Amino acid sequence: MHIHILGICGTFMGSLAVLAKELGHRVTGSDANVYPPMSTQLEAQGIELMQGYDPAHLDPAPDLVVVGNALSRGNPAVEHVLNKGLPYVSGPQWLADHVLQGRWVMAVAGTHGKTTTTSMLAWVLEHAGMSPGFLIGGVPQNFGISARLGGTPFFVVEADEYDSAFFDKRSKFVHYRPRTAILNNLEFDHADIFPDLPAIERQFHHLVRTIPGEGLIIHPTTEPALVRVLEMGCWTPVQTTGEGGQWQVRLLSEDGSRFEVQFDGKVQGTVEWTLTGQHNVANALATLAAARHVGVVPELGIAALSAFRNVKRRMEKVAEVNGVTLYDDFAHHPTAIATTLDGLRKRVGEAPVIAIIEPRSNSMKLGAHRDGLPESVAQADQVIWYAPPNLGWDLAATAAACPVPAVVCDSLEAIIERVKGQARPGTEVVIMSNGGFGGLHGKLAKALEG
User: Fold this and answer.
1) Is the pLDDT of residue 363 over 70?
2) Per-residue pLDDT at 427
3) How far apart are CA 249 and CA 271, in angstroms?
4) Model pLDDT for residues 34-71, shown as the tens digit of each residue
5) Residue 388: pLDDT above 80?
6) What cofactor is this protein dependent on (predicted)?
7) Distances from the Cα of 202 to the Cαs of 145, 173, 229, in angstroms?
8) Binding site feature residues for ATP
9) Which residues are annotated as a binding site?
10) Fewer Cβ within 10 Å of end Cβ, the chain: N or C?
11) How far apart (Å, rounded) are the C-alpha atoms in residues 370 and 383?
12) CATH numbers and ranges of domains, the chain
C-alpha cells in the first residue's frame, strides 16, 4: 500500500512513517520544513521526502493520505485530497487502527517530560528483555530511532493532548486506549487550541475514561490539575509518586544525578545516571511504577535507568569549543525552562550560564506564557531572547522584567556576536527552542572556534 504523510517531519508523524514502513508499506511524505533529526532518520529508512505541499506530490494518487495536525483547510495538498476524494485519516487514528489494536498500550501524558519519560519507559522494558514497540516524539539515544513495532504485545506511546487533525479536534491520546497510563503533570499550554486549563483537564478526563478497571494510572501527588481530573471520575487503580506518594525518592546529590528509590516505604535501590534536574527524578519514578505494572521489578528498572541516555535535544551536549559547552534543549514553556536551568545550575555550580531562548511554540507566539518567562530564567547568569519576525507581543518588556541581565536579538548573527563577546572557558550555553533555530547550534560552534 502507498501511504503519503502530510506533515511528515513533525516528531509524531515522522515516527508514524517509520512504523508504516516497518509494516511493509511504501511511504512518502511532504512537509513545509524538512529538517533534522526527523529528516535524517526518515531518509535513512528509505522514505522519500518532498519539500512543500504541492498537489503534484499526490499524483499518481496514493492509497491513503495521513494528514498531520499542523495542516488546515486552505492548504493546497489538503484541498487536493478533498477535491479528488482521496482516502484520508488522522495520524492518531491510523496508529490506533494499524498498530495499537490488541496490544498492551503504555501511554505517557502530561504537559512536560512526555518524550523523556516515554524513552525511559521503552528503555527499561528493552533492558528487561521485553522488546517493546514504541512511538516517541524525539530520537532516544538508547535506540537511535523514534519508533518501532517491537516483538511483544507491549507498546509505549507518547500521548499528546494536542488535537488530532483539522477534522478531528479530540486530543491525540483519546485514540490510544492505554492499559497503563502515566499522567506526568498538567499546566496550561497549546493556547492556539485550548481557551483555558479546564478545557485541557476535560481532554485528560476523556483519556481517563478509556483506561480499563484492570489498568493503572500513575501520577504525582503535587499536581492540583491532575487531582481535579481524577475527581471527575476514575474507574482505575491509581499509584502516586513524589511527596507523600507510594513511590518516593531521597536525593543523594542535589542535582538529581544520584537518588535512592522507595516504594511503599521500602528502599528499592539507587539510580546513578547522567541526567540532572528534579523533573527527571520525577520522570524516573513514574517510569519505575509503570514498568512494575508489566512485571519489571524495581531493581531491574533502576539498573536500566542507570544506563539510560537522554533523548536528542533534551539538554543534549552538541559541542565543546575552547572550553565553552553548548547544549541543545527543547524547552518551550516557562516551567520546562526553569527546571532545565535549575538542573544545570546544580550540576555546574558557579560556572557562568548563558540561556538563548526562541519563543517559537504556538502558545509562546500568542503570548500565553509571557508572564511566567522572566522568573523562569532566574538560574541563568544572562539570557538572550530571540525575537522572530512574527512574534505578536513585546519581548523587550519580558527581557526588562528578567531578574538577570537579558537582551533581545532579532538575528542569529547578533546572538552569535553577543555570545562570542561574553563566553569564556567554562561557560555553559543552553540553546532552547522547539524548532531548528536556523541551525544556530552549528553556526555558534563554528564562530567560537574562530
Assistant:
1) no
2) 96
3) 10
4) 877 778 889 999 999 999 999 999 999 999 999 999 99
5) yes
6) Mg(2+)
7) 33, 12, 7
8) 110-116
9) 110-116
10) C
11) 15
12) 2-91 (3.40.50.720), 102-305 (3.40.1190.10), 316-449 (3.90.190.20)
